[in-house]
């Protein structure tokens, strides 16, 4: 019984602390902007830099330029291959020229004349061989010459027939596919050449420049970080006991450190997962509590710097 007063004092202290925490409507955090990392797609050295830390940029402004020599050579090569494929397709669609057909006819006539001469030589060799005035080797040579001449006649006849029939549908399809592939390679090379210039994807503020002229970044390296100026928001930590009252779409009063008047913000997002509140976002009696990360859009905070502390206050129930 001696320790009852101390026991009741502890219970009363805990009850008062809990009530104080439950009645608090404040959430602390910082003013933020979305961070955009500008990456490069080649390892060519940086030849020029047009921005510095803290500079405001507009969408499309050039931030960095890399040496385009290699990318330009690849683009010119792919362009030439695309032109070659297109010319081949046009040739197949037009069909053989009359001059080519006449040339093939002349080759066929010459082959036929050679065949006739080889046939005559073969007949003479056989007569001489039968009369035992020639040997087997001479006869074999005459037969080989006649066979070769006959084969040449067939080759030229087939070539002439192919020219007269024109291009097949399968040949046209192959040529069209070759043109499409070459054009795709050309477009890819043009994109690689274009991306030797790193540009701002949106209006914003250069937070940090990470590379200098002459340096050679690796593929995929971040060369600069931008802060998106299109949306400024407060990132706050919602204590567990306020979570049910802070929902997307609800209005919240936000006091920015150093600004006299509070701003009205709209809750855009609240995390579904609880976490331990960071040490810098807590009052002393909240340091052991769970919290939910939330983002509150602020339409009137466009000129304020990122990272300054804010206090958001939930409307009374």
Describe this structure in words.
The N terminus is likely disordered. The chain is α+β, with helices and mostly antiparallel strands. It folds into two domains: 155 residues, Efflux pump adaptor protein, beta barrel domain (Elongation Factor Tu (Ef-tu), domain 3); 120 residues. Helices cover 43% and strands 26% of the residues. Helix 3 packs antiparallel against helix 4. It contains five helices and twelve strands. It is rod-shaped, with a radius of gyration of 42 Å. It has a six-stranded antiparallel β-barrel.
Question: Would you summarize the structure shown here?
Answer:
This protein is an alpha+beta fold and 317 residues long. It contains 5 helices and 12 strands.
Give a quick set of tags describing it.
317 residues; alpha+beta; Elongation Factor Tu (Ef-tu), domain 3; 2 domains; six-stranded antiparallel barrel; three-stranded antiparallel β-sheet; 5 helices; disordered N terminus
Give the distance, in angstroms, between the N- and C-terminal Cα atoms.
42 Å
| Mean pLDDT, all residues | 85
* Cα Rg: 42 Å
Strand arrangement across the biggest beta sheet: 1-7-11-9-8-12
Strand content: 25-35%
Give the name of the CATH superfamily of the largest domain: Efflux pump adaptor protein, beta barrel domain
State the secondary-structure class: alpha+beta
In CATH, the topology of the largest domain is named Elongation Factor Tu (Ef-tu), domain 3
- Supply the number of structural domains: 2
Number of strands: 12
Profile the largest sheet.
6 strands, antiparallel, barrel
Helix fraction, binned, reads 40-55%
CATH architecture classification name of the largest domain: Beta Barrel
> What is the number of helices?
5
Outline type: rod-shaped
